[in-house]
Amino acid sequence: MLLTGTIYTARDQAHLRFTEMISRKESLPVDLDGQVIYYCGPTPKGERVIGACGPTTSSRMDRFTPELLDAGLKGMIGKGRRSKEVKDSVKRNKAVYFLAPAGAGAYLSGKVKSCEVVGFDDLGSEAIHRLEVEDFPLVVGIDSNGDDIHANL
After folding, report:
1. Whose CA, among 61, 86, 94, 105, lies 20 to 30 Å from 48?
2. What range does the domain containing 8 cover?
3. What is the CATH number of the domain that holds 37?
4. Predicted pLDDT of residue 125
5. 80: closest CA among 139, 134, 132?
6. Is 101 part of a structural domain of the chain?
7. Facing residues of 78 across strands?
8. Residue 152 — very low, low, confident or very high, per pLDDT cuts 50/70/90?
9. What is the domain count for the chain?
10. pLDDT-based confidence at 145, cuts 50/70/90?
11. 97-111, pLDDT tens digit by residue?
């Protein structure tokens, strides 16, 4: 599929902060309700609005994902397999996990039309970025019924 719209980047440290803030009932820097998080830490920008922005390994976020899905997150973009707990949570929350093409960070950066840091700027490349993307290529990895593209591999 080709995604056009708003997505947010967030990696390990941002996920840890999100879950800590949720447990303390604090406001998050972005409203996760109905949003999509891209597991990505963009490189410094060059001539484009963003540097290379390929996906990182999704399983590193597995320990945080069910809590974020329960908080309203509806989609994630990354690479690789997910745990049973994440698959169950995707199904329970009617969410979706997308796979982005690995090794194509420079290509993917051309699909980003704007990029703005919107939270945790002290984390550098792991800060939360709001990206406006156009025709961002993805494959459904786990659908809202819990069906997993990796199941038969």
Report:
1. 61
2. 2-142
3. 3.20.130.10
4. 87
5. 139
6. yes
7. 99
8. confident
9. 1
10. very high
11. 999 999 999 999 999
Q: Is residue 117 part of a domain?
A: yes
The arrangement of strands across the sheet holding 112-119 comes to 112-119, 128-137, 2-9, 36-38, 75-78, 96-99, 139-142
Q: How far apart are CA 42 and CA 54, in angstroms?
A: 7
| Long-range pairs of 89-97 with CB within 8 A, sequence gap ≥ 24 | 89/65, 90/142, 90/144, 90/146, 91/144, 91/145, 91/146, 93/69, 94/144, 95/69, 95/144, 96/140, 96/142, 96/143, 96/144, 97/58, 97/140, 97/141, 97/142
Does any domain span residue 51?
yes
The catalytic position among 10, 11, 14, 15 is 15
15 in active site: yes
Look at residue 38 and tell me if it is in a domain. Answer: yes
